[in-house]
Amino acid sequence: MFGIFKKKSKKDLLLQKYNKLMKEAYNLSHSNRQASDAKTKEANDILDEINLIDKESST
Predict the structure, then answer these.
(1) By the 8 A CB rule, do 55 and 47 touch?
(2) pTM for the full model?
(3) What is the pLDDT of residue 5?
(4) Is the pLDDT of residue 1 over 70?
(5) Cα angle at 41 between 37 and 47, to 5 degrees?
(6) What does R_g of the chain's alpha carbons equal in angstroms?
(7) CA geometry: angle at 28 spanning 34 and 14, to 5°?
(8) CA-to-CA distance for 23 and 14, rounded, in angstroms?
């Protein structure tokens, strides 16, 4: 019940941002391919950050 007040981790915030960007990229892919590619690249950069956080936490 009190999970809504729990502070989100950096990884959780990045995952939310990644999902949002991928959704925007998909919607843009129907009308503007270049903008879609730019959003996808930005999302992939965030995914790299997430993977880096995972590597640091596993070691």
Answers:
(1) no
(2) 0.84
(3) 78
(4) no
(5) 140
(6) 14
(7) 95
(8) 14
